[in-house]
Amino acid sequence: MLLLALLLVACAAVxxxxxxxxxxxxxxxxxxxxVAGNLAEHPLTPTLFDDPLLPLNPANWQANHxxxxxxxxxxWQAALSLRLLGRGFFALRLPGLLLFLLTLAGVxxxxxxxxxxxxxxxxxxxxxASPLGWLLVQGYHFGDMTDVSLAFWLTATVLLADxxxxxxxxxxxxxxxxxxxxxxxxxxxxxxxxxGALLVLWLAGRRGRLAGDKxxxxxxxxxxxxxxxxxxxxxxxxxxxxxAEAAIEGRALLQxxxxxxxxxxxxxxxxxxxxxxxLLSPAFIVWALAGALAxxxxxxxxxxRGAGWLALWCWGTWLPLLVVKTKVxxxxxxxxxxxxxxxxxxxxxxxxxxxxxxxxLLLTPALFLLATRHAxxxxxxxxxxxxxxMAVWPHLPLELLxxxxxxPPxxxxxxxxxxxxGPAARARPLLRPALVLAATLPLAALVHEQGETRLAFATxxxxxxxxxxxxxxxxxxxxxxxxxxxGRGDGRQRPELxxxxxTGIPAxxxxxxxxxxxxRAGLERGPLLLASPWRRRGRELAAPRPGCGYWxxxxxxxxLPPPRLDGEGAEPGDFPVALLTGSVSAASVRxxxxxxxxxxxxxxxxxxxxxxxxxxxxDGGRRYPAFARPAALxxxxxxxxxxxxxxxxxxxxxxxxCAGLCEPGRARAGSVMADAxxxxxxADTPPGAYRLLLETSCLTRPGRSRRDFTGPALEVTx
Length: 718
Description:
Shape: globular
Structural class: alpha+beta
Radius of gyration: 28 Å
């Protein structure tokens, strides 16, 4: 228990320092945060846009009113935290961290029940070291709080169900059924494996194929009845209250099975290749599959209830997904507790009782880590017709080849040991430490990969245009106020959802004619605020500043404040924009830290797009990049998440004006735009005095043109 306590403290320390980071990915945490914030006000009415000004498409789960895209439990958990602690990023993610820590404790306790203390501790360590686990708790990866909630309630379900079987107490079956129902209310059909496992164990016991204590029929019935009552209760409630929206989400759930829903379609072999790699890392695939197969063998041959739980949980998740076409990257997260326990059980058994095949299996991941640097990535391309996922990412084929290559020397070494008993006896004490070392190398690489993941995501953890806008509202507005944000979303950031989550004020983002229609509707309902990156003539409540590139206006009358055109500061020439002013949030910064700059641009004519890259220029003229560089990006799933979720152009420095949330093509001659530049200073930047330089590129009808603009002075301190 002491080692478990140390693991939990270490895991909490890793997460707590960054749990309040400001970055809300548009997929999915910004949506989840808005829903949780609204549920904190009305727990039985899940909404995304709480009081929309314009009609919304109920089939668009990223922009609708009544939100039934996911079951409600993860959002109720977050809403309770928001009610207790107030609206904020820390309160939003705290339930996820607590559930993750409880999952680690539950995995340990389950391991103690089913296998042993060492197995439980090793399985908990694997979960704690998972880069995907860190991403989910921190809200960076698709699914975030929903997958964390699913894993916890599934672990609690199996733990209580096994306790009910061993004790014969029906009351524990009630609790396990309750947890099963809560798992369903976390992520619906992905929660069914433990319920199916309990049913199979009961059937095995009736046929004499289960050793030890066996589930009783009344326990199985109670478990299923309680779980079904919870799941059906929510389904009936939503279908009676919102029949149209519930029918839409029912069809969407079916589309996950029958179609490539939103581009997440994957072939069947991905379930045993890269989707397993997502859980930990590619090096663990062969151990994961071997652990699941070994658990199934122990269940069938030795009639072990503990092995049965693990095997049925794993394969009860894998096999149904073979007929499901849509498989999101974290689709297997709910079964990782069982998979980690099966791996720990197998690995410790192989270390305690070495064999040639076991030694080869233990050595394979370490050799894989070396081989991946040299193996050609397309060596398995010939298998694309049958194994399309493995043809692109040949993780499992390479590991199986390495395993096959290790078997002959391991078998030969065992034969030599039998023929040379004297030297073998002297070398035998070294065998187990060598195997432990070989098995530890992939785990050390996993911990290192999680560290790389944390460092990469830390570079933009403070970036959030919506959070800066929320800070602009110093005084709470009158009741019934709406906020309109002028611009368009890029998917990666949803400032309107962030603003409404942090302030409780309904907010929407529109551009062009839709902005005018929304403004008319908002003014008819009550007070209306306008946040715009463009300077306008009107009652200004707040001006842009570093960290927030919006003017905040009070809309009066029947329409929005008109644009204010300004000719001051215009530079002659053929470049379409001119830099009017620039300011920084602090006169001195430190390496490995953020930089916030506010730039006001004047447009001489409309452009298709503009982007800029930030540099530091020393007195001698040497340039140093003031942006994150992809020198040590983490591999695998974290790299994929970075590519999809990081701000556009983050790792090459070429960032669009106003973070891609405005439309330079709508600019008129004389339009002034606020551009809040948020960047990252690399750790190797030498201290000294610098001047900021904005390397700017604009695309106009004749073509793309570039110009450098000199910005404010800045000092880098050690």
